[in-house]
Specification:
By secondary structure, the protein is mainly alpha-helical. The protein is about 65% helix and about 10% strand. About 0% of the residues are buried.
Length: about 55
């Protein structure tokens, strides 16, 4: 038996439904991380552009 404990719940990977939900949440988390990283980089470039400087 394999368990993953998160702050919200405990996931038992021996159950097919919980394994599927873990896969969905993993994909969404990876996408959210990419979007946050993109917004941070865009903000950095925009802040430099406001000061009329080049990177």
């Amino acid at each position: 038996m394999a368990f993953i404990e998160t702050p919200d719940n405990t996931i038992d990977l021996s159950h097919e439904n919980q394994e599927l939900m873990f896969g969905f949440t993993s994909v969404l988390s990876a996408y959210e991380f990419k979007r946050i990283r993109h917004r941070l980089n865009k903000g950095k470039y925009d802040a430099v552009a406001i000061k009329n400087r080049w990177i």
